[in-house]
Amino acid sequence: MTTVVDSAATSNDDSMTDSSLFDDASMQTTARPLTIVMSGLVITTLLGSYLLLSAAESVNLIDGAVEWSQESPLRAIVQLLCLNYGYATVNAGDVKLYVLGLGAGLALLLVAIAMGSNDSQSENVIGAVHSNPQERQSPSGERPICNAAVLALCFVLWSFASARWSSAPWLSIGGSILLAIGILWSIALSLCLDAQRVRTLFRVMVIVCGVSALLAIWYYYGRNPNLRAKFPFGNPDFLAAALMPGVLGAIAIGASALEAIRSGQGGKVVVWLSVTMVVLAACLWTMRLCDSRAAYVGVGAGLLAMIFFGVGRRCKIMIAVFAIALTIGGVAYIANSMHGSDAAGRSTTLRFRTYAWSYAWRMFLEHPLRGFGQGGFALRGDEYAVGDVLRDPTVFTSRIDHAHCEWLEILADLGVIGCVLWIAALAMTFRDAARRVTLPRGGINWTVIGLTGILVAILAEESFGVGLRMPEVPTIFFTILGMLWAATNSTGAPALDRIAIRPRAVRLLAASAIGTAGVLALVLTQQDLAAAHQSVLAQNELQKGHFDAAVHLAESATARLSPQRSIAALLKLAEAHVDAAESAFSQARERGARDADAAVPSAQLRVLIAEDIKSARLHAEQALPVLAEVTSSAPGFITSGLLEFRLDMLRANLAVGDNDAEKSRALSALAIEALKREVSRQPFDPAVAALAARSALAAGDLKMMLQILARPMRFNRLGDGYAKMLQGIADNDELLGSLIQQFDEVHPTIRSADAASTWAPEKLRIDAALRFLRGEYATAADSLAKACPLYAEIPDSAVAATSCYAEWSDAQFFQHPDDVEPALSSTRMALKMAPPSEAGRELRAIIQRRMIHYELAAGDEEAAMRSLAEIAPRGSSTELLQNELGVQLRRMCESFRARVFWPPVIAGDSSEATRMMTTMHDKYGRWIERAIELAPKDGPARFIAAQIAAEDGDNDKCESRLREALDRGLNPNAALEFLNQIAANRFLAQGLQYLRSQLEAMTGSPTAAP
Q: In a 3-state reduction of DSSP, which class is residue 846?
C-alpha cells in the first residue's frame, strides 16, 4: 500500500522554518476514515484511562473523609466514573487496563481491515494526503515501521521466550501479553496516524490532563483533604505520573503559542495560550496535592529533555552537564535520606525502594543474561527480605512485588538481553525525534519536542515507581510512544499507506494475523477485568458464608494477566478452600458437642457431622495443590506460610478424628515450621505474632512467647486480637505467675542503653495490659509510666509511643475515676505525639473518643461536646452531637460496670472500697439518666437504667425502663435473661413477673420453674 502523491511533492523547500503548533496552513490535509477513526479511538482510550475507575462504593468513611451530601454533584460524577459501582474490583484501576486492551484490540482490527482491503495501486487510499512537500521527510526513511518499533517487538518476543526458564511459565506469559498489548497499541498508532493528527491529539491529551487535574482537586477538597490526592487513579503516585503530560505538554503548547504571537498570529493562538495556562496551573496544583517525589523528578527530567532537543549543539552540552550534576546530587540525597525518619513515613518509602533495588540487582547478578523470566521479581522479591526485616521492620509491612525501578526490574526479569533491546528501542526513538526537529518544522516540531519530554519524564519517574507494571500508567506511556513514532516516521500520510505486500494472499494472511492479535487483546483484557471483578464477588460470598460459590468465583478470579495479581488470586483461591474447610470442621465439632450433650443421640445429626467432615476433607485436599503451586512459583510469598499453617493444623485435627496420632503429630510439626517461616517474614505482624506466641506458649517457652508478642507492639497499638489472648493469660494465675518472673527481669534494664534492643518498653506494656485486665490498675499505670519515656529514643515508633501514653491514660482513669486530671494530661500528650500518617490519624480518633469519656467523668460536658465536634462528620447538627454525647456517656457507664475495680486497688481497706463503690454507683445513676436525656432513642441506656434500678430495689422504675428499652429495640432474649438473673436472687415484683411471662411467650422460651 503506498500513497498517491503528486510528483512535485518530492521537492524540498529549506526556507520553511515555521515551528508553530497553530500554523495549519503548512499542513493542509484531506481527512480519511483511517486517521479519523484512529483519532477518535485514541481520544476515547485516553478519556477512559484517565477518568474511569472500577471501584466499589465506599460504605465507611476512610481516614477523615467527608460524608456525601444527597445533592452533591461530585458524588454523581464519581458514581458515574466508577461505573455506577456495578463492576467493582479489588484494585480500582483494573478497568484502565481493559481500556488499553479495548483500544489496542480495535486499533489492530482497524490496521487489519486497512491492510486487507487496499493495495499499493489503489487510488482510494485510506490516509491523509498532505500538500506540504516538506512533510515527506521522515527520519526513518521510507520504512513504514520504524527501527524503534522493530526493536520493541524483539523485546516482546524475548519476554515471551523467558517463560521457558521462569518458575511460573503461565504467569510469565500473562505478563508478556500485557507488554505485547501496549507495544502493539503503539505500533498501531504509528501506522495509522499522520503528523497533523498527532498534533491534534497532543492538544487533546493536554486538555484531558487538565480535566483530570480539576476533578482531582475537586475530590480532594470536597471529599477527603487528609489524604494525598489520588482520584481518579486510586493512587497519588499514579495520578501524579499521569499529569506529567499535562504539565510538559502545556509548556510545549505555550512556548509554541508565544512564538506564534511574536510572529504576528493572534485569535485562536491567544485562546490556546489561556487554556494551556489553566491546564498547567491545575496540573501543578494537583501534583502538589499528590506530593509524589518521583513525579517531581520526572517533570524536571522532561523539562531538561525539551530544552535539550530545542536548543543548539553548544547548549546541549551544557544541558547534559547540568543533568549529570543533578543526577549526582539526587544520588547523594537518596543516600543521606535513606537512614532518616519522619513522622509521616515518607523516609520509610525511600528506604523500601533502596531495599527493592538491591534485591533486583542481586537477582540480576544471579542470572545476568536471561533473568528470572517476565514477572520474576514479582514472584521472588519477598524471598530476599527475610534477612532485613528485623533490621528495618517498618519498611517490610507489605509484599515486595516490584523493584520500584523499571530498569532494575527488567534486568531482574529479562536480564541484559531484554534490557538492551528495550534501551535500544528507546534510543532509536530519541534519535528519530532528534532528527525530526532538525528538519523544516512545518508545525510539528513543538509536538515532537513535547512528546519527547513527556517520554523522558515517564521513564525518569518510573526509575522510582511501579506505574508501568500496574494498569494505570501503561495506556498513557504507550500512547505517547506511538504518537512519537507516528510524528517522527510520518511522510505526510499514515505509515500504513507505504506498506505494499505482494501477493494479495500474503497481505491477507498478514491482515488475518494482525486481526487475530486484536481479537485476542479484546478477549484477554475482558477476561482479566472479569476475573478481577469475580475476586470481589468471591470475597463477598466468603463473608456471607457461601463457601461453594466463593470457591467457584475464586477459581475464575485466577485468570489474571498481571503476574503479581494472578499469584495473589491463586493464594486467595487456596484461602477460600481453607476457609470452607475450617468452617465445615468447626460446624462438625459444634454438632458433635450438641450430640454428646443430648440425652438421646441423633442419627440425623451424625449424618450431618459426617457430611461436614467429608466437606472439610474435600476442601483441604483441593487447597493442597493450589497452595503448592503458589509456594513453588513464589517460595517467599507473604502470608503463604500462614495459610499453610492453617491448612496443616486442620489436617492434623482431621487426623485426630481418624485416630491417626502419628500423622497428626507430623502435620502439626509441618504447621509449626510453616508458621516459623511466616514469622521470619512478618515478625511484626500482630496476627502472625499472636499465633506464633500461642505455639510458644503451648511448648512452654515463655521467654520466646514474650519476645514474639513484644515485636509488633513497637510499631502498633495494642489491638483486639492481642487483648483477647492476654485476657486468657490474665485469667490463669499460674501462668501469670510464671510470666511475672520474666517481667521482673525487665525492670533493671529500663534505664540501660540497650532497653530498646531488649524490647523493654513493649514488655512493660504487656505487663501493664495483663495487670489492667485483672483490675490491678495502679500496677499497670506504674509499668506504663516507665515505658512511655523509652520510646523517645526509638525511631519510627510514634504510633507505639502514642498508644503507650493512651494506655497509661486508661490505667490512670480506672485507677482514680474520681480524679480524672492525670488521665487527661496523659491523653493530651498522646494527641501531641500522634503522627500525621493514616495509622496515626486512626489512633488519634480512638484517643479522642476516650478523651470524651474522661471529660464526661470529670463532669465537663461542655469540653466533651467540643471534643466530640472535632471528630464528628462535617456539618453535624447540634441535635446529632447531643445524641452522640448521650451514647458516649452510656458507653462510659458500660465500661465501668464491666469491671471490678477498687478492692484490688485499695489494698484491703474495706471502708475506702465501700465508699468508692457507693460513690461510683451514685454516679452511674446520674450519668445514665443524663444519657437518656441526651439520647432519648438509645435503648441500651434505658436497659442500664433498669439494671441500676433493680440494684436499688426500685421495681417500678426497673419495669418502666425495661419496657422503654424493649420499645427502642432491645433484644427480648437479653431482657428475659436479665429478669431470670433477678429471679434467681430474689422474688420478682408482680409487674416484673408479668413482663417476664410476656417475654417468655414472645421468645418461645419455656416457663421457668418456681
A: helix
Contacts of 71 (CB under 8 A, 6+ apart): none
Torsions phi, psi for 439 (to 5 deg): -80, 165
Residues 185/104, Cβ–Cβ less than 8 Å = yes
Interval 23-68: pLDDT, tens: 544 444 445 788 899 999 999 999 999 999 999 888 777 776 788 8
Residue identified by cell 506464633 is 692
Cell, residue 153:
517487538
Task: Express each pLDDT in 554-595 by its tens digit.
Answer: 999 999 999 999 999 999 999 999 999 999 999 999 999 888
Specify burial of residue 748 (Cβ count, 10 A radius: 0-12, 13-18, 19+). Answer: exposed
Torsional sign, CA 617, 619, 623, 626: positive
Distance CA 572, CA 540 (A): 13
User: Could you tell me the sign of the dihedral formed by the alpha carbons of 502, 506, 508, 513, in that order?
Assistant: negative
Contacts of 89 (CB under 8 A, 6+ apart): 54, 55, 95, 529, 532, 533, 535, 536
3-state helix, strand, coil in the chain (%, to 5): 75, 0, 25
From its phi and psi, is residue 672 left (phi > 0), alpha (psi between -120 and 50) or beta?
Answer: alpha
CB atoms within 10 A of CB 468: 23
- 3-state SS assignment for residue 146: coil
The predicted pLDDT at position 214 comes to 97
Q: What is the DSSP track for 640-700?
A: HHHHHHHHHHHHHHHHHHTT-HHHHHHHHHHHHHHHHHHHHH-TT-HHHHHHHHHHHHHTT
- Residues 373, 163 contacting (CB under 8 angstroms): yes
Question: Please, what's the b/e burial string for 904-923 (b: 16 or more CB within 10 A of its CB; e: otherwise)?
Answer: bbbeeeeeebeebeeebeeb
> Helix 760-773 and helix 798-815: axis angle, to 10°?
30
Give, in order, the Cα–Cα distances in Å from 733 to each of 57, 652, 699, 729, 900. 48, 30, 18, 8, 17
User: pTM for the whole thing?
Assistant: 0.84
Q: Write down the pLDDT at residue 872.
A: 82
Instruction: Give the Cα separation of 272 and 260 in Å (integer).
Output: 11
Q: What is the SS3 string spanning 41-90? A: HHHHHHHHHHHCCCCCCCCCCCCCCCCCCCCCHHHHHHHHHCHHHCCCCC
Burial 697-727 (b: 16+ CB within 10 A, else e): beeeebeebbbbbbbbbbbbbbeeebeebbe
**The three three-digit cell numbers of residue 308, written as one number:** 535539550
Contact call for residues 578 and 643 (beta carbons, < 8 A): yes
138 pLDDT more than 60:
no
Query: Which stretches of 132-267 are DSSP H helices?
Result: 147-161, 169-192, 195-222, 236-262
DSSP 974-1004: HHHHHHHHHHHHSPPPHHHHHHHHHHHHHHT
- Alpha carbons within 13 A on the beta-carbon side of 702: 14
Q: What's the rounded Cα separation, in Å, for the pair 683 and 502?
A: 66
Query: In which band, very low, low, confident or very high, does the pLDDT at 910 lie, cut at 50, 70 and 90?
Result: low
How many alpha carbons lie under 13 Å from residue 200 in its C-beta half-sphere?
A: 16
**CB-CB contact of 65 with 58 (8 Å):** yes
Grouping H, G, I as helix, E, B as strand and the rest as coil, residue 795 is: coil
Distance CA 776, CA 800 (A): 22
Cα 137 → chain centroid: 48
* Enclosing H/E stretch for 541: helix 504-544
Q: pLDDT tens-digit profile of 468-482?
A: 999 999 999 999 999
Number of H helices, E strands in the chain: 38, 0
